[in-house]
Design a protein that fits this description.
There is one protein chain. The chain is an alpha/beta fold. The protein folds into 2 domains: 326 residues, Rossmann fold, CATH 3.40.50; 164 residues, Isoleucyl-tRNA Synthetase, Domain 1, CATH 1.10.730. It contains 22 helices and 19 strands. It is elongated and about 90 Å long. 45% of the residues are buried. The structure holds zinc ion (ZN). Zinc ion binds next to loops.
């Protein structure tokens, strides 16, 4: 029962974003990756929950409001949070829930959690003096400071803060965290990040301040039982992952979805997600039965995956450079599916990457237009022309095989190999590898990727062959049409709109076809001979680029 239960739910999260800025292409990258994995798991039939949201209890939101010349913080938070929500909606991201850390439901969960940690004896009031970076919302240690400034915020002065704070005894969990990393190597991905976090926990991790004095901050959740303090932003923010699935408000829902199956984060916040966060849960679990499995083990997130940093045409995204790209601005030119493809294909997921306008144009023209779009267009147009507007009638079993001994094309077997490769890549959180397999196929020589499907047309020249051997052409074109249907399935999580348009050109109703589910849908013979095809409309129209 528990195995079925695990396979049938998939809860994934993005970081919640600060509302001191608008969404740019870097945030879009994380969110698109999450959406792609969510869509894949929905096709598998899983009960998926994708949550994103906004981090609002931060002093830097207050500063941003002041800078904007405003004075009503709630109005500012509402407007900016709305901007984020609207952006994801406009881009077609399939968000199941959008949480704000100013939501009442969130406050309830934070309070419950704080009390549990308090009962575990892991909170203690101490005087803290140190250098504080408002950009990071964190105290900085020597190794994180260069020329008197934060490594990540070289343009901001550090504040010297001395105050009474509640401390969370993070160092109590050093051994437990290291043991967890050893027994659950899949917890932190990719491996380079796991090594980094291991060394941090072993050598550098210290107790952390988790509250601020009320007189120093104008925003934040009050510390339960201590009116002089507000909960510090990370301790509060991390809890969104639980409060979004009912922690503190709906125990049944929480038990259905927690622990998270995947938490996507940027590499700059792994210390919080892979050390502080699991330690907080370990602490609270001692006094909150909701946080332990039936076997007594603690309900920690299954995977935290950290992706790399992002540059724009080789430069760091920054307000001062003004190079942040609003993802919506690219949609009229390329269509959002092409942007999704570019982001997920161009960058090895987990590594640093660059958003290059030139590379985007190249990928759009070659991978999408000339390779994928051209294939679908030629196959549908030829079939319509030679077979009376419909799908050719042929021996469906023979059509599974490579047509010639020396063919680059490996038929159905190659398509099945791609299917397995897509599944493994997405289970390993590597959308880039999945796309690589769909385009180039899998295998030593003969393959069945989109590239080889195009080669099959060159090899066999159906437009010439049709006069002497219409039977062979029927076989070839049926195989290629069916391959296009497979590709439409394969790319569905990545390019949902393009996928539906391909299915429509193949004469299928996308909604009905996708309702069959991944396993049923990816069985040979989904196209019925003699059934009418749709119109071969170009999927990726040529774009004029100003230089
Ligand atoms: Zn900083």
């Amino acid at each position: 029962m528990s195995l079925y239960y695990r396979m049938s739910k998939y809860y994934l999260t993005t970081p919640i974003y600060y509302v001191n800025d608008k969404p740019h292409i870097g945030h879009t990258y994380t969110t698109v990756a999450a959406d792609t994995l969510a869509r894949f798991h929905r096709l598998l039939g899983d009960r998926v929950r994708l949550v994103t949201g906004t981090d609002e209890n931060s002093q830097k939101n207050v500063q941003a409001m002041e800078k904007a010349g405003e004075s009503n913080i709630q109005a500012y938070l509402d407007r900016m949070s709305g901007e984020w929500k609207q952006t994801w909606q406009d881009l077609g991201i399939t968000v199941d829930d959008f949480i704000r850390t100013t939501d009442t439901r969130h406050l309830a969960g934070v309070e419950r959690f704080w009390r549990a940690v308090e009962q575990s004896g892991d909170l203690e009031k101490r005087t803290y003096e140190g250098l504080y970076c408002v950009g990071c919302e964190a105290f900085k240690t020597e190794s994180e400071i260069l020329n008197g400034r934060c490594l990540l915020h070289p343009n901001k002065d550090l504040d010297t803060l001395s105050e009474e704070n509640w401390f969370f005894k993070l160092s109590n969990y050093r051994e437990a965290l290291l043991a967890h990393l050893d027994t659950h190597p899949e917890f932190v991905q990719p491996e380079s990040r796991r090594n980094e976090i291991r060394s941090y926990i072993e050598k550098f991790m210290t107790d952390v301040s988790v509250s601020r004095e009320v007189k120093k901050v104008s925003i934040g959740i009050p510390v339960p039982g201590d009116d002089s303090q507000r909960i510090y932003v990370w301790f509060d923010a991390l809890l969104n992952y639980m409060t979004a699935v009912g922690y503190g408000t709906d125990d049944d829902m929480f038990q259905q979805y927690w622990p998270a199956d995947l938490q996507l984060v940027g590499k700059d916040i792994i210390k919080f997600h892979c050390a502080l966060w699991p330690a907080m849960i370990m602490s609270a679990a001692k006094h909150d039965a909701l946080l332990t499995h039936a076997d007594g083990s603690i309900k920690l997130p299954r995977h935290v995956f950290a992706h790399g940093f992002f540059t724009i045409d080789g430069q760091k995204i920054s307000k001062s450079l003004g190079n942040a790209i609003d993802p919506r601005a690219l949609v009229p030119t390329y269509g959002f599916d092409a942007i999704r493809y570019y982001l997920l294909r161009e960058i090895s997921f987990g590594e640093d990457g660059d958003f290059s306008h030139e590379r985007l144009q190249i990928r759009y023209a070659s991978d999408l237009g000339n390779t994928f779009g051209n294939l679908v267009n030629r196959v549908v147009a030829m079939s319509k022309k030679y077979f009376d507007g419909g799908i050719p009638q042929t021996d469906l079993v023979r059509a599974t095989l490579p047509v010639r001994d020396d063919s680059a094309w490996d038929g159905k077997e190659g398509l099945d190999r791609i299917r397995s490769a897509v599944e493994s890549a997405l289970h390993a959180h590597r959308p880039d590898l999945a796309l690589e397999a769909i385009w180039n196929g899998v295998g030593d020589e003969r393959r069945s990727g989109i590239v080889q499907a195009n080669k099959l047309i060159e090899e066999t020249q159906p437009f010439k062959l049709v006069k002497e051997s219409p039977e062979t052409v029927a076989e070839i074109l049926y195989a290629l049409l069916e391959a296009c249907r497979y590709y439409a399935w394969f790319v569905q999580p990545f390019m949902p709109e393009v996928s539906s348009r391909i299915l429509a050109q193949l004469g299928l109703d996308a909604r009905e076809e996708l309702a069959r589910g991944w396993v049923q849908g990816l069985a040979w013979g989904g196209l019925t001979p003699l059934k009418k095809l749709g119109e071969p409309v170009p999927l990726f129209p040529r774009i004029e680029v100003e230089s």
